[in-house]
Design brief:
The complex is a heterodimer of chains A (405) and B (77). Chain A has helices spanning 10-28, 34-49, 54-79, 87-110, 123-138, 147-155, 168-176, 181-223, 229-259, 277-281, 286-306, 313-332, 336-361, 370-392, 394-399. By secondary structure, chain A is mostly helical. The model of chain A has no long low-confidence stretch (mean pLDDT 94). Chain B is built from 3 helices and no strands. In chain B, helix 1 (3-15) packs antiparallel against helix 2 and helix 1 (3-15) packs across helix 3. Classes of the chains: A mainly alpha (405), B mainly alpha (77). At the A-B interface, helix 11 and helix 12 of A face helix 2 of B. Chain B: Keywords: Cell wall biogenesis/degradation, Cytoplasm, Ligase, Phosphopantetheine, Phosphoprotein. Chain B: It is found in: Cytoplasm.
Chain lengths: 405, 77
């Protein structure tokens, strides 16, 4: 028996293909074998969380029971007739839902080099799913708590380790039905294409940038002691590696979901073609940025505007951008470079909005043509790559960490 | 004033465009409406028409044209 990180090596794909073929035949003939799907899900979860990783498997089970009880309690409270729908109960439920993640994120800060025993791969992605479910339950959009469906949603194995982050109402609707044969054939075609595109991204391009090019540049940058052009080279190589690695993984997750008749949302849409930073966040790690938009940014703006916290709409937007991105920074991890990355993007959004307003006001005097568009793409690309350099933590290794040489 | 006209007025305030003859214009793909505009829209619908639409209800594929927003408002009444 061997143990696997999802999509980590070719054998994992052979197991996948063998396991989902019966499911696909069923879907083609109008049946979703839910029992079978549950069995193969368990099998793949064991491949990832079993064997030498059994402790994280126990943590996952404990976490799942905890969240199921929490969402069940909150849902029961909301389903009561004439429920008072108190704000503090909602806030308490959200806080309790994120407590395990906060503990996991803070542990390395207090005990350097050690990971929390309650952590497991993918905990932050499951936490997103739990929190959004609580929020939609509060809004009355999710009216029923169904432990088995909710469990299927949280543990959907193609996306368990790193997303994309699906939505409960969307997932449940897909899971409840069987797509029409012609629609499903189309999904198979797309799914297969995504998986093969993922192979090119992850095992060719990300491998080249991440495992061939980056170590060489890294070595040269470290040997140079301090600033050198190698840092710039590292910035681009790291950005390419980050994109192809994560986009490749996401293509696998979406492709396999499609083969299983579930339309997990896409995570990337040609992000390096973005014309500005807002455009970038509509194309980069989309399920994460849309999650932040829908469950943090818009709610924060709604709250601020309703209670007239700031006089102007612009101030409201700016404050909310920075808070939103700062929270995203903290979510990535409690290090100065993740938090700086968040703040950097928050302020980039503010500057972007200010520029767009200025441009709209003076549109008669500001040229707009192919060259300005090309320049906008070039500028956005570099602003983004620089943010990834911060994010990579390499500056920390270069300037603040003990020197290896 | 009827609901349809109120919605069109709200949208005109938000985007600066009159959609009376353009009820199927996609407000998001043409970038006329963003998250900020959306929240403003929800608050205006609440204030002017008494339609309670929480942020969760807001599915961009179901609220993306003036015609769909008008239909939602009429259904909620």
């Amino acid at each position: 028996m061997r143990w696997y990180i999802p999509y980590g090596n070719p054998t994992y794909f052979i197991w996948l293909a063998l396991a989902i073929i019966p499911l696909m035949i069923g879907l083609l003939y109008g049946h979703r074998f839910r029992g079978y799907q549950t069995i193969i899900s368990l099998f793949f979860l064991i491949l990832t969380f079993g064997g030498p990783n059994w402790k994280t498997g126990i943590s996952l089970i404990g976490y799942l029971i905890y969240q199921l009880i929490l969402v069940w309690l909150y849902s029961t409270y909301r389903q009561k007739k004439d429920t008072p729908n108190k704000g503090w109960i909602f806030v308490t439920a959200v806080v309790l839902a994120i407590v395990p993640l906060v503990i996991v994120k803070l542990t390395p800060l207090f005990t350097p080099g050690r990971q929390s025993i309650i952590g497991f791969m993918g905990i932050s992605y499951i936490t997103f799913k739990v929190v959004q479910t609580i929020m939609e339950t509060r809004d009355g959009m999710i009216k029923e708590f169904h432990p088995v469906l909710f469990g299927q949603f949280l543990l959907f194995f193609p996306t368990i380790s790193s997303g994309p982050i699906d939505r409960y109402r969307r997932f449940e609707a897909d899971y409840a039905k069987v797509p029409e044969q012609s629609a499903y054939l189309d999904m198979i075609q797309k799914g297969v294409r995504y998986v093969f595109q993922g192979f090119v991204y992850k095992f060719v391009l990300a491998y080249y940038f991440g495992s061939v090019l980056m170590p060489q540049i890294q070595m040269r940058a470290l040997m140079a002691h301090g600033f050198s052009w190698n840092i710039v080279a590292y910035m681009y190589a790291y950005s390419m590696d980050l994109f192809f690695d994560f986009a490749g993984y996401s293509l696998f997750a979406v492709g396999i979901s499609y083969l299983m008749g579930i339309k997990t949302p896409m995570n990337f849409n040609q992000p390096f073609k973005s014309k500005n930073i807002k455009d970038f966040w509509n194309r980069w790690h989309m399920t994460l940025s849309f999650w932040f938009r829908d469950y943090i940014f818009m709610r924060l703006v709604f709250f601020c505007m309703k209670h007239h916290i700031f006089k102007s709409r612009t101030t409201t937007a700016n404050v909310c951008y920075v808070i939103n991105m700062l929270i995203m920074g903290f979510w990535h991890g409690e290090t100065w470079y993740y938090i700086t990355y968040g703040l950097y993007h928050g302020f980039a959004m503010v500057i972007n909005d200010t520029w767009l307003r200025f441009k709209k006001k003076h549109q008669d005097h500001i040229p707009h043509n192919k060259f300005t568009e090309a320049f906008a793409i070039f500028l956005t690309f570099n602003v983004v790559c620089f943010s990834f350099l911060i994010f990579s933590g390499f500056l920390n290794t270069l300037f603040f960490a003990p020197k290896p040489f | 004033m009827d609901d349809k006209q109120t919605v069109l007025d709200i949208l005109k305030d938000l985007t600066g465009e009159d959609f009376s003859d353009n009820l199927d214009e996609d407000l998001y793909s043409s970038a006329l409406l963003d998250s900020m505009g959306t929240v403003q829209l929800l608050l205006d619908l609440q204030d002017k028409l008494g339609v309670q639409a929480p942020v969760s209800e807001f599915d961009r594929n179901e609220w993306n044209t003036p015609a769909k927003i008008i239909a939602k408002v009429e259904a909620a009444k």
